[in-house]
Design brief:
Elements (H helix, E strand, L loop, with lengths): L1 E5 L7 E5 L3 H17 L9 H7 L7 E6 L6 H4 L7 E6 L6 H12 L5 E7 L3 H12 L7 H14 L1 H6 L1 H19 L1 H8 L4 E7 L6 E7 L2
Parallel strand pairs: 3-4, 3-5, 5-6
Antiparallel strand pairs: 1-2, 6-7
Helix pairs in contact: 5-6, 6-8
Function: Catalyzes the reversible hydration of carbon dioxide to form bicarbonate.
Protein name: carbonic anhydrase
Catalytic activity: hydrogencarbonate + H(+) = CO2 + H2O
Length: 218
């Protein structure tokens, strides 16, 4: 890792570890999650001095693209603080132009070395898609659009998913990781030259742990 120092006039410089590679960025996420699970969180980068030092610019070490579920607060479950994660969240971590643009901004403008896609068990979007498969019904309004985007993953493992919803959760995480790679030239190019890694993680709501499901470049 390299050292990044952010200085503010009249204050001591704030010195923090900044991961220079996708692997070291992933290591920071994994270590933070272990602290969270063990109840030993450090609550890093949450003090007033760090907040002030970050005001002129940001340099997050990872993009966290996850489900909007209220139980998936990224900075909490990975024990990170201000300026550490560039967080993009949608129900069922479904992808649209705004999502792609936000992630590409973090990669191209902020030089972030890692994208982590975060899914979880007991996902409402997955449950709604499975309900649609079982009964042939769709929800109303724009919720239907979310369910339709998740449906492709559910149908790919239909028989398994009807017996075990985790099969659908894991497939949707893999699908999202691969779709980001297919849809974004910025992501594909950065992966090809080794400046970026992607990982798909599944979060267990009861245990608080994350499991690796998929990955590229890490």
């Amino acid at each position: 890792m390299t050292r990044l120092t952010a200085g503010v006039g009249g204050m001591d410089d704030i010195d923090r570890d900044w991961p220079a590679t996708p692997a070291s960025a992933l290591q920071l996420l994994v270590e933070g999650n272990k602290r969270f699970v063990a109840g030993e969180r450090l609550h890093p980068h949450q003090d007033a001095d760090h907040r002030t030092a970050l005001a002129p610019a940001q340099r997050p070490f990872a993009v966290l693209f996850g489900c909007s579920d209220s139980r998936l607060a990224a900075e909490i479950i990975f024990d990170q603080g201000l300026g550490d994660l560039f967080v993009v969240r949608t129900a069922g971590h479904v992808i649209g132009p705004e999502v792609l643009g936000s992630i590409e901004y973090a990669i191209a403008a902020l030089d972030t070395p890692l994208i982590a896609v975060l899914g979880h068990d007991s996902c409402g979007a997955i449950a709604a898609a499975l309900e649609a498969v079982r009964h042939g019904t769709q929800p109303d309004g724009f919720i239907r659009d979310v369910v339709e985007r998740v449906m492709l993953s559910v149908l790919a493992v239909r028989q398994q998913a009807l017996d075990d919803t985790d099969a659908a959760v894991e497939e949707h995480i893999r699908y999202t990781v691969d779709l980001l790679l297919r849809r974004s030239k910025v992501i594909a190019d950065r992966l090809a030259d080794g400046r970026l890694g992607m990982v798909g993680l599944s979060y267990g709501l009861s245990e608080g742990t994350v499991r690796r499901i998929a990955g590229h470049g890490v």
